Amino acid sequence: MAELALNPVTPLLDGQGIIIDSVVKSFKPSIRNIIRMGSRKRVLALNEISLKVLPGEALGVIGPNGAGKTTLMGCLLGFLRPERGSIYIEGLPPESLHIKQMIGYLPERLTFDRWMTAVEFVSYHHELAGMPKETRQQDVEELLTKVGLDSNVWSSQLSRFSRGMLQRLGLAQSLIGKPKYLFLDEPVSGVDPGGALQIRQILNDLKKSGMTILVNSHQLDQVEKICDRVVFVNKGKVEAVEDLLEPEHQRRMVLIKFDSHEGELPGKEQLENIARQCGAEITSFSFLHATVEVRDNKALVNLVKTLVSENHPVLEVVPQSGRLERFFMEGKS
Amino acid sequence: MSAKIKKDRAINLALFKSTLEEWRYNPAFIPIMAIGFLFLIGYSIVSVTFVDAPIHEATFSSVFWTALPSVALLGAGIIGKNVSSGILSVLFARPIRRYSYVLTRWLALSVASSALCLILLAIEQIAAMAAFPGILPDFNTLSQAVARVSMCFGLSATFVMFSSIFPNTLDLGIWIMLSFSSNLIVEISHIEPYMISQISCNDLNRKITEFVVPICKELAIPIQSLVSPYLDLAYLTHTGSVSWYAVFTYFSNIGLCLLIAIAIMNRKEVSYASK
To answer: Distances from the Cα of A257 to the Cαs of A206, A276, A307, B137, in angstroms?
Structure first.
């Protein structure tokens, strides 16, 4: 896990991107907590958090529940006022109307005007965003098609929509006007696997088009496939940063599967010897597969090369946990 | 997709239209409105046909009981419901000023409730013309129209203020409580000095009453005009010239309510993280 250098944030030279500098945010305790805990102390949600998001970057924010992820997003969107510190998007505060014209937002807990139809809802937000009336119908249809919402339900009331359909609609409204910055809070929550794949594809396309994306999510596999960089937030602080564009240099477990029809299967002792020579260790072994702990990428490459050169039928090598899963678990511990 | 157009207006047309549509599509709205409306029409027809002159003078109670149901039905939770439901976080991610949101919701409520009141007045006038042939709309009709519309705008401002403070539809409860208190104060203020000796038989009660009544007399009109502001055309012109003081009071009360609502909304944190 790469350590985060918590240096003072210097403004970006060209005023692009997002700068979060030593932001502190706390909340009054709820009446329930005062009664239960007997404490009237404010709850610290963000504790001197500093971060830079570069233009065109896809940044994932992960962390346990109550870590401060949603509070951070609330501050970035100007919904919450930090007590200390500053946030700038393109050199302007997030409350600025100029910035609001550049952003798209998909909240985690979507609340819609449920009497509207899908077309009416997106048209309404198209108008709220100050987009021209002439292109409204075309833009709305393009967006609904893009998020994969079946055209048969475009004229149905939102009260009849499933959670996944509402999520797609929420994504459509967040993409109105091709925003420069896209803030997504649990974008694939409640979406079926096909929908999740489609949303991931859309986000990857948007990233390629140069959009800056900030994703809050507990779905680590999705974050891993979308983001360039991931920050681990815990107790209101950025505790670690993982650059997903860099190769991983970390111990990890892989499962090696063999094909019994294609060659000579290695015995346990034989496999242990090969693994030891390559910088790996067998943790479990059975007839057709072995779980191996490898020191780093180099060790894994050597192990596979050696097995293949000795004519052992390696069918596939499967990581036992995702990169972010390991990153998350290390961050938590 | 086309480039965006920067807009920064006090009234947001998209939000205004959506507020009106929201009422139209509310499944509970049409039946409740129909029942309420039929009751008021029945009351008005009976009243103008059998009880009194064609169209009443614009007294506080006659105006109040036509304006209040419209405003209360449409306006309960006009902002509070949006705050509680979380709709505002999606709305405020758009380039909309918070004052524009408050003013637009107020205007939509005022316009919709005024329209209902004016439709009711038109029905009353038609009933009166049918019951009393030869009767035409007169000063009382105009006075009623001005009073009802002005009370709708005034009450809407009061509801918007309370709704920006209290969650969900609690604003209606608070308004009813305050209105009840203001009516009580008005009633107490009507006690004349010679009545005090009849009401209170011991010295302490008499002294308390003598102390309370003048205060209520001072507070009655300001509180009532804050809770339910309206313009009484007959009162405004009874001296032959317009009473600018009353006009100023009416507009300043509405302005005050809206300013308070805007100040509160500007400070409100709309992310559910704050909950």
So the answer is: 36, 18, 11, 93
